[in-house]
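I hope you will forgive my troubling you with a question about protein structure. I set the record out below, with my sincere thanks for your time.
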Amino acid sequence: MEFRMMFHQVGSIIYFILTKNGYVRKILIFIITILISFVIIFIVYNKLDCYIQESKSSKVIPRLDELKIYTYGPSRPSSVNNDLIAILSPEMSLQFILRLKLLDVSFADNFSTTLLIMHSNYLSENSLKRLVNNIKRPILFLKVSSIFNMFPENFDSCRTKSNWQIRGKWNYQLMIRFWFKIIFELPQLQEYKYIMRLDDDSQIINTWFNIFDEMRIKRAVYFANDVIIEEERRLPGTMKFKQVTLEYQKQNNITVKQPDMLQKAFGDDYILSYANNFEVMQMEFFQRPNVRHWIETIDRTHGIFKYRWGDAILRYITMALFAEQHEVLHRSQYNLSYCHKKCRWPKVTSISLERLNK
């Protein structure tokens, strides 16, 4: 019925054109030709653009063991406990370096925990010097730009539409995948037992004790930030993760470690999550076969890319499924002050920025 109506309308347009005088008919034909040309160019461009992107990405996808950690400046002694603070940042602004300087001041580990800066852009000589001259703890660098061309198997990154674009079509989703999956696969990090994640806009406030030591004492596998929610109305497709989770639990006969936590995690139109712009992860836990199987299964659904399932909800549900309650510590229980994004800078900020800029 719809096709019949469409053909009828097209026929009406053609009849309208043919019944006009010569001058008007030529103008109408010219306009239609231009419109058809634009449609053809758009279709051809999209196909060629996808072909170019596929050719490019197939050449740059690296093996993870090809990525090299490097240092800058004199070496410094690091902790014997194999702990790591990891930050993923596209660049090193003065504000970013100041946050790292505040980390030195606030985190009471005697500057012993190594800091790993994973970056995607080129770091200038001046930026490296400024960083090394202002930060007291050992610093490592790892360029991860190649990882941001790594997509799940059988995912069409060109023809699939993105519903969440920040710094590019898929950059945010690739960041989610990095913290949910790739971080635990990097051969360069296998020597570390605990890894603290901080975003480049995170800020530790006041004095923190050495939470790595606390995790060792409590035999914890995860140190969690605040509990927040992800809503279906904001991110359509969020609630599909509930169905995937429950089906996985049933199909794999999973004995849930925290059933109450899992049950409360799923509302009618929201899912609870951890604000994991700060978190501490035990590497061994995330490399257990049952946890790895779960991570790989979620990755194959392409839900991170199709629905922007965030690492926040993915981490929360992972803890509910596989971690005992006593294995998960919470920042709020220890009254540790923390800020993300819009933070109030200390009064010394203006002076510190001036010094950093010299």
